[in-house]
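Q: Could you fold this chain for me?
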Amino acid sequence: MHPRHPFRPLLACALALLLTLAPQLAGAGQSAAEANSPQVIPPEKSCGVCGMYPAQYPQWQTQVLFKDHSMTAFDGGKCMFRFLRNMAKFAPGRTEADIAMIWVKDFASGAWVDGTKASYVVASDVLGPMGKELIPFASEEAARKFREQHGGTVELYERITMETLKPL
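A: Sure. Below is the predicted structure, expressed as structure tokens.
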């Protein structure tokens, strides 16, 4: 008969604790860049403004990542900017200081780009999931070329206000 090992209950508790903390520990080793990378928007996640499902509109997806690693997804730039310019309404208790990263999809390539560095074509003849949109581009030159073919105006992130959104 084997004598009972005195550390077996302690090992079982340690293993249970490790399994409980595994998700947090997995993220703990991430660099800031990895933690702030764009997230896959799951089918059940609704837009933080209009309630539509961004996963159904991959070309138009945008997202705001917060420092607590949560994410708010949008079905287009118009909803994202409504959220950003009126966080008190759509995310009570959150401020711009809570934002870690803003991601938008470059309309030309479909690649995720930093939303604060993108150029946006406003009110072109190309319609998004909810009509007239802010269409993001990785470069101002690409936005201007698109505007030449599809109309609208080109705006930089910091110049987009609630006034910009009204005609949309």
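A (continued): Strands lie at 62-66, 71-74, 99-105, 112-114, 119-122, 134-137, 153-156.
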